[in-house]
Write a structure and sequence with these properties.
Alpha-Beta Plaits, four-stranded antiparallel sheet, alpha+beta, 4 strands, 23% strand
Length: 99
């Protein structure tokens, strides 16, 4: 399964930025060892249901340690029997664009 998620702490720095809290969450994802990708809006992670959701929970917990309120947006693509979809989905679209 693929899960794209975004975590938003309610507390920002003096400039309104949340990059330190977001970096802590991304660090959790990267240290998980699961395939992942971070863009300007979301982090996408690939794996089995329980392992992916455990990583998302740890990422939320690390942000919650510095913020009294945390927002979570999550979108999942649940497709049993498929792996490598983090890149394969994009590759299929790119091939279709070349036609």
């Amino acid at each position: 399964m693929l899960v794209a998620f975004s975590i938003s702490p309610s507390v920002a720095d003096d400039t309104g930025g949340v990059s330190e809290a977001v970096a802590a969450a991304v660090r959790v994802v990267r240290e998980s060892g699961l395939p992942n990708e971070t863009t300007s809006m979301f982090t996408t992670i690939e794996g089995e249901w329980d392992e992916v959701m455990a990583v998302v929970k740890r990422a939320v917990d690390v942000v919650a340690a510095t913020s009294p309120r945390v927002g979570l947006v999550l979108k999942a693509d649940i497709r049993p029997g498929f792996t490598g979809e983090l890149t394969a989905k994009v590759e299929r679209v790119e091939r279709a664009l070349e036609q």
